[in-house]
Amino acid sequence: MEATTGNRILVTGALGQIGTELVEALRARFGIDAVVASDVRDMPDHPVVIGGHYRHLSVIDADAFDAVIVEEGIGLVYHLAALLSVSAEKFPELAERVNVGGLITVLEAARKHSLRVYTPSSIAVFGPDSPNHAPQVTPLNPTTVYGRTKVTGERLARNYWNQYGIDVRGIRYPGLISYKAPAGGGTTDYAVDIFHEALANGHYDCFVRADTRLPMMYMDDAIRATISLMDAPAESLGESRVGYNIAGISFTAAELADAVAARVPDFTCDFKPDVRQEYADSWPDSIDDELARQDWGWRAEYDLDALCDAMIAGLQLSSI
Predict the structure, then answer these.
(1) How far is CA 27 from the centre of its chain?
(2) Is 54 a catalytic residue?
(3) Cα gap 89→185, rounded to integer Å
(4) Rg (CA), the chain
(5) Which domains does the chain have, with CATH numbers?
């Protein structure tokens, strides 16, 4: 290994839904200069770009990635760059290049430069043969392109940990809900879009059935989980270190619509399932996160009421 002396943090996919808030949290904790945000997009007015150091970077360009690691003195990578479920189905070859090839870029850099790596997984790794209350260890037979790339990602991460001793960790994110950044092209985006449409138009056409129940989480919980996992002592983590289940809230689309209607007068919602219903039907209703609780003390804080209150207050404040 060509060990680096760097202790700065690189976040890939930093302009996405998770990256926007993770960069903000990391800069608040470690200082603006300690965090290098990167993405393949040019968005000069984005708060992540305005608020600190930013590098235009493609994770499928291994030479450029390696150069940034050295130039910026990086010691830890939060690798968030990915095509999500809907986009991955439309562009499967690109999804393979970004989601799998991009991860190989990061893991190879970690091997050469002794980096620590966080690389997220997803509930999309589960398939229709998984139990409705998905355990940590179960056959992973996803039906979506995105899910298959995440299964491959977990296997790659585990291999680099076992073969090269790379400290690589990950979480299987449920559907993530936030008002600070647009949703990124995932099947669970309805749980974000509904708040925007309720406040803007008083109505929402939901693209999954009313009875569709999926695991969800408010972004504040997801960011806290991400940083907490990387804070955990390595010896406390077991075989699930590359894809811990974490649970937040599980609700149906109708339950969410009712909760929004209770807070937004005259709000209405129609349910008009499209192809994304097929993806949702292949995923579990809820998640068993006992190992994350046991190994590194994970606990969610937001229930459905707290999530709805936070989303509506945040969107109303940001529109002022």
Answers:
(1) 18
(2) no
(3) 10
(4) 19
(5) 8-174+219-245 (3.40.50.720), 176-217+248-285+302-318 (3.90.25)
Query: Among residues 54, 118, 146, 173, which one is catalytic?
Result: 146
Paired tokens of 259: 């909760």
Nearest residue to 244 via CA among 257, 259, 256, 230: 230
What does residue 35 show for φ and ψ, rounded to 5 degrees?
-120, 125
Please, are residues 289 and 133 in contact by the beta-carbon 8 Å criterion? no
- pLDDT, one tens digit per residue, over 213-231 is 999 999 999 999 999 999 9
pTM above 0.90, yes or no: yes
pLDDT at 236: 98
The 3-state secondary structure of the chain, one letter per residue: CCCCCCCEEEEECCCCHHHHHHHHHHHHHHCHHHEEEEECCCCCCCHHHHCCCEEECCCCCHHHHHHHHHHHCEEEEEECCCCCHHHHHHCHHHHHHHHHHHHHHHHHHHHHHCCEEECCEEHHHCCCCCCCEECCCCCCCCCCHHHHHHHHHHHHHHHHHHHHCCCEECEEECEEECCCCCCCCCHHHHHHHHHHHHHHHCEEEECCCCCCEEEEEEHHHHHHHHHHHHHCCHHHCCHHHHCEECCCEEEEHHHHHHHHHCCCCCCEEEECCCCHHHHHHCCCCEECCHHHHHHHCCCCCCCHHHHHHHHHHHHHHHCC
